[in-house]
Amino acid sequence: MYDWAELRHFKYLLTILEKQGFRAAAEELRTAQPNLSVQARQFQENASVRLFRKMKNGRIRPTDTGIAFKVLAKFLLDTRDEVIDALIAIERGDITSVRFGSTPLVDQKLFRTFCDLHKEILPACPVRPTHGDAAHLAEEVAAGAVDAAFVTLPLHHPNLHIAELRRDRLVVCMRRDDPLAKKASLLPSDLQGNLTVLYHPQRHPNAHARLLELLAEAGVQINDCSWASHPSEIQTLVKDGQGFAFVREGIHLDEELTTRTIAGVNWTVDTALVYNRDRHPKTIPILVKRLVSQLSENGKKIHPANVFLSVQDALSARKDPAERVKDDPAQMRLIG
Fold it and tell me: Which of 307, 318, 316, 314 has its CA nearest to residue 73?
């Protein structure tokens, strides 16, 4: 469809925009300025876009499309490098097996999809699944015992790359025959004294602490509760009449249970893939992009965000304060 577009076009135009002029870009790229001008004009004409305007002082000023181009061109060129790195590693035989981890609160369909995507690239490479708590898996990834792991946030580790993938709304799980199940949604005040089933704090201390903060902000205090170590145990306790619990929206429920949203708040459980910044199989960055693309096609709530949020931030910065669209209400999320 766009066979006329080549990677050199993106490199040339990115350098022009970054250097804010053709002469400086030509020197950086070690090419003739007329050649650079021809390449820039042809790309913009073929794509029917305008990436910059020339100023009186000879410098250029990017348009809104040009600002977006800078971010997306970097994304494209980085992906090119990651693809080549992966091919070289495969040719050298560097990736003979992989070990991927997941915490209990992560959607296991997401985890299996990631494993299947790796098998598409390397069918003969064994994928060894492992499960554990977020902090434990993070340390194993940092130490190299696990190649990558799906965890729920918040999580901070200086040696890990944390790629946030998906946000799922937290909803209240209750028995279908509970009187409050007649309501379309619950108020935060409905949780007081009823939210008495929680995921064990030792399983994810940071997430537990953040949840208590959010509840306190909504005026809900947790005085006494039952602990569960797995989503299935949470449902069992709720089914047995131990009280309400939080679960991820869309989770498969026992037929005796139902869920309700909480009016006035937007609490989410955020899923991320973590891998070692310096020592990781070179296929992983490519898999993250493929997974994000697949989630987007399926209409899931995602944040491939480092690229697309940067575009939005850049465009917002270009607008005058009076032109900026008012932000959505602040969300209270289970993420630092």
Answer: 307
Q: Is the dihedral of CA 271, 276, 278, 280 positive or negative?
A: negative
According to CATH, the topology of domain 95-164+271-297 is D-Maltodextrin-Binding Protein; domain 2 (3.40.190)
What's domain 7-90's architecture? Orthogonal Bundle (1.10)
Whether the predicted pLDDT of 301 surpasses 60 = no
Distance CA 285, CA 46 (A): 31
Q: If you compute the radius of gyration of the chain from its CA atoms, what whole number of angstroms results?
A: 24
Could you please report the per-residue DSSP string of 233-282?
A: HHHHHHHTTS-EEEEETT----TTEEEEEETT---EEEEEEEEESSSS-T
- Distance from C-alpha of 99 to C-alpha of 112, rounded to nearest angstrom: 13
Collapsing DSSP to helix, strand or coil, 156 comes out as coil
Lowest mean pLDDT among 104-108, 233-237, 258-262, 298-302: 298-302
Maximal C-alpha separation, the chain: 76
The amino acid at residue 109 is K
Decide the pairing of beta strands 160-175 and 268-276: antiparallel
d(CA 38, CA 14): 15
pLDDT at position 2, please?
87
pTM: 0.76
